């Protein structure tokens, strides 16, 4: 009777040993094979990055999924893995404009110019998305999407595309559609000509285009832009747009804080 139970006991022990062999190499969840490229997940939270890596590996068998706490850890083992296809930086609930996060994005984007850097975040805030792209990210994926969708969006970035959530496009559309009805708050802050330049800036137009459409010299447009930046206390064009959009959405209640 006892001898008949021994094989079953051994079988259970063998099954239990399988996941332990996966844990011996915590930085990779893909079974070694004929992978030609790899995806690196960067996240200083070990449990989060390992769970995400295992889910992604189950979705993308032809791509080796690697998980590291920092890019320095990956560099130490880069020769052990296929060429890097993309970097997925999981910032979780952190803000993109936090100094540590923004610096990390800038550094990675600058060092890996030919490798798309995609940001994964808990938020899909329009301002945070724009800042991530401004810092050099090639895509912004909200954590609300499924793993399969996440993999498709990463593939899009690898192919040369740039993905942003639909919520960001709706936010931009709302801002543009409301420009005519909310132009009045600008009257007390800017001159009539500056208001026209502001509208063009909010639409992302370059100085040359603004000069052509408003029949101005490009140097004159630059002067208007500098004066607008001073009035809203901004250091660059992107910050100007953010502050102006806040003003438009508040219907002018933020005007006093800008002046």
TrEMBL record:
PANTHER family: HTH-TYPE TRANSCRIPTIONAL REGULATOR YHJB-RELATED (PTHR45566:SF1)
Name of the protein described by the UniProt record: Response regulator transcription factor
Keywords: DNA-binding
One Gene Ontology MF term: DNA binding
Domain HTH luxR-type, first and last residues per copy: 183-248
Organism whose genome encodes this protein: Rhizobium ruizarguesonis
Domain Response regulatory: 38-158
GO process annotations (BP): phosphorelay signal transduction system; regulation of DNA-templated transcription
Superkingdom field: Bacteria
InterPro entries: CheY-like_superfamily, EvgA-like, Sig_transdc_resp-reg_C-effctor, Sig_transdc_resp-reg_receiver, Tscrpt_reg_LuxR_C
A Pfam family annotated for this UniProt entry: GerE
KW Cytoplasm (keyword) present: no
């Amino acid at each position: 009777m006892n001898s008949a139970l021994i094989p079953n006991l051994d079988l259970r022990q063998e099954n239990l040993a399988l996941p332990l062999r996966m844990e011996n190499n915590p930085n990779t969840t893909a079974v070694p094979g004929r992978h030609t490229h790899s995806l690196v997940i960067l996240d200083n939270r070990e449990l989060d990055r390992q769970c995400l890596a295992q889910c992604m590996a189950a979705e993308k068998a032809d791509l080796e999924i690697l998980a590291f706490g920092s890019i320095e850890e990956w560099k130490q083992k880069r020769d052990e893995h296929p060429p890097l296809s993309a970097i997925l930086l999981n910032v979780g609930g952190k803000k993109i404009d936090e100094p540590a996060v923004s610096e990390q994005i800038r550094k990675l984007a600058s060092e890996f110019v030919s490798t798309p850097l995609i940001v994964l975040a808990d938020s899909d805030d329009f301002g945070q998305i724009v800042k991530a792209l401004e810092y050099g990210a090639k895509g912004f994926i909200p954590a609300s999407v499924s793993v399969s969708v996440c993999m498709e969006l990463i593939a899009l970035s690898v192919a040369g595309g740039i993905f942003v959530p639909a919520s960001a496009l709706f936010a931009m559309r709302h801002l543009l559609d409301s420009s005519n009805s909310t132009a009045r708050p600008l009257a007390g802050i800017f001159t009539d000509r500056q208001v026209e330049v502001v509208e063009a800036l909010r639409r992302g137009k370059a100085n040359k285009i603004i000069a052509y459409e408003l029949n101005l010299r490009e140097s004159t447009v630059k002067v208007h832009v500098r004066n607008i930046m001073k009035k809203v206390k901004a250091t660059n064009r992107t910050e100007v747009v953010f502050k102006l959009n806040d003003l438009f959405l508040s219907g002018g209640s933020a005007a006093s804080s800008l002046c």
